[in-house]
Amino acid sequence: MAAIRWITISFSTLSGDPLTNEATPLLELRGITKHFPGVLALDGVSLALRGGEVHMLIGENGAGKSTLMKVLCGAYTADAGQILADGKPVQVRTAADARVLGVAVIFQEYSLVPHLSIAQNIYLGREPLNKLGLIDHARMRRDARAMLDRLGLDLDTRREMQGLGVAQQQMVEIAKALSQNARVLVLDEPTAALSERETHKLFEVIAGLKKQGVAMAYISHRMEEVFRLGDRVTVLRDGKHVATLRAGDATPDELVTMMVGRKVDMSYHRGDRPAPGACLLDVQDISAANSIRHVSLKVHAGEIVGLSGLVGSGRTEVARAIFGADALTSGRIRFDGQELRGSPTHARDLGMGLIPESRKQQGLALLRTVCDNLLLAGLGRLFPSRIYQPGKAHEEGRRRIQQLRIVTPGTRTATQSLSGGNQQKVVIGKWLVAGTRLFIFDEPTRGIDVGSKEEIFHLIDDLVHQGAAVLMISSELGEVVRVCDRAYVMKDRCVAGELLHDQLSEANLLRLAMHHG
User: Please, which residues have CB within 8 angstroms of residue 155's CB and are 6 or more apart in sequence?
Assistant: First the structure.
């Protein structure tokens, strides 16, 4: 702990970027402050981005990382502070201002048009014209080819975006940024939806961009990425700058302590495991068209069952089929002895809840209030007379906010303004209000900071100790080993095998997922 105090004290005495004895940054933010109604999102935060460096930006959800990047790219205007390009003050009030400075951002939600080609997406709104003033498609494809070659991508520039995988779409976003002569590239959780192979390819691209002198700000919740990619690390907490240091000058535990302001137990394992209760979920030989094949599994009350496998193995499709979102072509599903009718409404009424992988698109009504979202699935249970009582609704929302420790200014706050970890808690709370007994978690910690991950794990543990059952899908093999009582492994859209608790290891999960040995 002494090392942590030394880092914090020594760096806090410096103004601007703490590591100043080097070349002028390509872009620098000094003392950036940003208010939202009831929230001080950024409080005098500074950050310097230098050519040929990857600057990792870490902190809990709600620490201010995304807000700072939105100020950088012109989506938000700072209330106070200064932005400098090559050491000179500049104004960044719009996205166009940021583009002129060579700033490009790759957000988790891509800004691509599915029915247009790769070349059309790269040059959308900036299409080259011929002498007649018409779009020069041949030149556009050549220029797009040059951008893809720069990234080492062998893709047909005439191919439509809708036919590409997530990783390929991300690479097209990067090519689009480079085509705008981007000198500063912001990557927001770029590996969140990528497989291990796709992640390795992205890291190769980042290494190439470093050699070309591009400055990169990289937001991540994965410590292994911080130390593998980062040249520098800036830690934010509660909208404030905590420290900037060279990667490797602090251990992962020290960085986590800086992020959360307290010591976090990163070695969470399930506590005492009571004997499982009755079988709540019995899935028998189910198949769905072009989705999953002959899947069988069981989940008992009081246990956490993992569903593992590589990206594309069919894990999410199993969850959707169980919940009734996708129709079965064969097999049957029984919940607490009753056969499911293939309807999400029926699944909910029986006591089943799905916390989807994409909480923003499928789990929440983002423009509605926190209270509205918390009550969404349980209105019939809360108001059996079908008469809505505002006072009772507000009290139930307030109770769940306290129970789950959701950080929000109030029950009437728009859910879209919450951090990722708090949005995930709202989705869980929605199913608690509905009286759920089987929780299906699809990637419960994706895009969530370290501190919030531990909270989610403890919350899941509390649910099963109260007699609920949990089916947990995760790409993080370590999470499956740490949290689950046993696990099924998917490969090629069917179950490759089951591992009991004493068999759970990352090596065994991978062996089944890849059918090695």
Answer: 118, 148, 164, 168, 172
Is residue 190 within 8 A of residue 225, CB to CB? The reply is no
CATH of domain 279-351+437-453+472-517: 3.40.50.300
Q: Phi and psi (nearest 5°) for 501? A: -55, -45
Helix (H) or strand (E) holding 49: strand 39-49
| Cα–Cα dist 486/502, whole Å | 8
CA-to-CA dists, residue 474 to 348, 399, 444, 446, angstroms: 22, 29, 7, 9
Extract the tokens encoding 85: 């390009």
Q: Which two tokens stand for residue 251?
A: 């251990």
Give pLDDT, residue 514.
Answer: 64
Which helix or strand (DSSP H or E) is residue 304 part of? strand 304-309
* Spatial distance between the Cα atoms of 173 and 196, rounded to a whole number of angstroms: 19
Report the alpha-carbon distance of residue 192 to residue 45 in Å, rounded. Answer: 26
Distance CA 377, CA 360 (A): 16
Long-range CB contacts for residues 405-408, cutoff 8 Å, separation at least 24: 405/455, 406/370, 407/62, 408/370
Q: CA 261: distance to chain centroid?
A: 22
**Residue 187 is encoded by which pair of tokens?**
């990557």
Tell me if 284 sits within 8 A of 296, measured CB to CB: yes
pLDDT digits (tens, 9 = 90+) for 74-110: 999 999 999 999 999 999 999 889 989 999 888 766 7
- Helix extents (H) in 243-343: 252-260, 315-323
CATH architecture of 28-259: 3-Layer(aba) Sandwich (3.40)
Residue 4 pLDDT? 29
pLDDT in tens, 417-464: 888 788 889 999 999 999 999 999 998 887 776 777 788 888 899 899
Topology match between the domains 28-259 and 279-351+437-453+472-517 = yes
pLDDT value, residue 30: 95
State the CB neighbour count (10 A cutoff) for residue 466.
10
Amino acid 8: pLDDT: 29
Give me the residue spans of the domains in the chain. Answer: 28-259, 279-351+437-453+472-517
| Tens-digit pLDDT profile for residues 180-209 | 888 999 998 888 666 677 788 889 889 988
Residue 61 has pLDDT above 90, yes or no: no
